[in-house]
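--- STAGE predict ---
source: upstream dedup step, 1 unique chain passed
mode: sequence only
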Amino acid sequence: MTVPLLPPGFRFGMATSAYQVEGAFDLDGKGPSIWDTFTARPGTIRHGEDGRVAIDHYHRWAEDVAHIAAAGTHDYRFSFSWPRVLPTGTGPVNKPGLDFYDRLVDTLLSHGVRPVPTIYHWDLPQALEDAGGWLSRDTAYALADFAAILAARLGDRVRDWITLNEMSVQTLYGYALDSHAPGRGLGFGALPVAHHQLLAHGLAVSALRAAGAATVGVAAQHFPVSPASGDPADVEAASVFATLTNWLFADPILRGGYPPSLLSLLPVHDGDLEIIAAPLDFYGVNYYEPTRVEAPRAGRDYRGVLEVDIPAGMPFAPVPVPAAERTDFGWAIVPAGLTTILTTLRERYPSLPPVVVTENGASFREPVADRRRIAYLDAHLRAVLDALAAGVDVRGYYVWSALDNFEWAAGFGERFGLIHVDPATLNRTRKESWHWFRTLIAAQPPT
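--- STAGE serialize ---
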């Protein structure tokens, strides 16, 4: 198989997040996060698993960096555990926690890998959740203070920063539904969560700029949404779903305003939108699969279509996306959907910054001989090439994920990694896809 060739200077990366890999949930002064609390509830996680040990990256980080670097990876996207650095979300810094990230950054740089950290990837300190969590405006300011602490310690070596990851998923899965931490199940009452995360993003951009950050971006989940038919009710249902999952989050960042249908439902203060719309150096897009939606039909069972089930009473219902193949997670494999969402973003936002695909990957359960993953990644990189040909300025592509890890509510059963992690021994083994990725990077044109 010939590998796709991207433009000179294109960045290839791998990605992880703190709760999914680090473990060491109560070591060296770390405080509890909402995921520690959530996974302790019976029935929340498949097979009753949790991230208390995860894949023990907290102790095995040097080995993991060596694997990541040996592939020729340009960038490593990771996240900070907020309660590891600030056990209650505010107050004194936990020195061992911040020291861990200091060592990680130095080791990445010594291997020639650029660190691209995400400030917040869903592991809110439990103390902040007890005080209201993302329903509270104060949490946005707490995150900005956290960003300032990180930049003060690491900003002399870290040049590229991501503020928040997938605000739409935290809002929908964790607060509107009860499938992710903190499991609030508030329905449309979760809309303030969206605004407060967006405010946190804008405030963090300001804090990072003040600390001299070279480039700042965000990682947003995006996917094309299509109606199941031409029926006007289906078209309207798809439009509502796309607004809630895509444009509610992208419009204020890239247009400076919310979709008009939602503005009155959000706790916007004077000046908030100017903060949220602070210019970015890049816009991160996380893509996995498209979504197909219809107006709910009486008596139809909509369970099992998405990773989470949309409750009855919503004005939209997901239906299966036609696809020749699916991942072992059941997700439709539609590489063209990545081209579609990238070109849609470019058309909707004429001032769209350069784009980095900050997550793309698939769960396949083969331990090492993962040829299906290779085909998946190859096809999605070719979809990026199609977007480039259509005029989208795409600068990088990060595989989710570097290593097999704790896949949130799905536990350890879903395997996204380029590096296999044995669930019993935690031994690491490079998969065939890791070797393919190394070949891909080595074949690219010189910068």
